[in-house]
Amino acid sequence: MEDMISMEKVKRNQRKYSDETKSLIQVGGYIAPIDFLWEDILIGITLKKPILLKGPSGSGKTKLAQSISALFNQPMHSVNCSVDLDAESLLGFKTIITKEGQSIIEFIDGPVIQAMKKGHILYIDEINMAKPETLPILHSVLDHRRMLTNPFTGEVIHAHEDFSVIAAINEGYVGTSPMNEALKNRFISFSIPYLTGQQLREVIRAQFPQVSEQLIESLMNINEDLKKQVINGLLAEEAASVRSLLDAVALAQYIPIKRAVLYAIAEKLEDKMEHKLIMELVDTWVK
Q1: Contact, 53 vs 169, CB < 8 A?
Q2: Is the dihedral of CA 245, 80, 40, 9 positive or negative?
Q3: Which of 125, 124, 123, 158 is closest to 144 using CA atoms?
Q4: Strand 121-125, strand 76-80: pairing
Q5: For residue 169, which of 132, 131, 126 has the smallest C-alpha distance?
Q6: CA distance 170 to 5
Q7: Superfamily, domain 2-191
Q8: For the chain, which residues make up each domain, given as ranges?
Q9: Helix (H) or strand (E) holding 157
Q10: What is the pTM of this model?
Q11: Which of 163, 192, 215, 254 suits 205 as a labelling partner, its CA being 20 to 30 A distant?
Q12: What is the pLDDT of residues 216-242, one digit of tens each?
């Protein structure tokens, strides 16, 4: 019976997506680079499976999570992982407050506990940046138990039925480490590639409706060349980032394209040879 109810929710959410896709695009929502990717992720979310988004920087992982939040009208609590992430950053902390003239200790819920109690989305960004010993505290939250015993208060928290978890990783980047198997096995994983072709053009047009077709065409051509060099191993993945391309579009409305690409893309790379290659590619399209 529970599986039948879940699948009915999936169908309703798929219909809702079909009805609302255009409005999501108009407000800068996520556009899937693969036809079935968005709907498959929605099925995972509806079944309350923790979702892991794997992809290069600027491929739209955060935008995807934000679009799910918008689609379901479900607030999202974000955790930005780093080597400094600790249990308090995830769960909350104790503080002293004054109440009716007396000082008392009160626990302030962190993003994990807030999302669990309120039935919101928990978004864990760059989860492989956190120290491996920090994240096991989430194991019971991410598996079938969907619960947590708060080590600071002893409170046992059972997740609201609408609670969902989305995590994102940039694999192979400096400062990251492989996820341990116990953690990774709790997720359903999806690879998120960069947008290409007409889909990328739609994103640009949605965010910059006043930009000329000539400007879009020039930057699209430059972006395609950058992707080819990424595939050939001559440029780092972030050179073809959609985020960087959109930054270049924003700048190119007011300054020459060549300077826009310099500031939005080339200057982000530390390797001087990569920097030079990007600007040479630009010269082939912009005179």
Answers
A1: yes
A2: negative
A3: 158
A4: parallel
A5: 126
A6: 34
A7: P-loop containing nucleotide triphosphate hydrolases (3.40.50.300)
A8: 2-191, 197-285
A9: strand 156-158
A10: 0.78
A11: 192
A12: 999 999 999 988 888 888 888 788 888
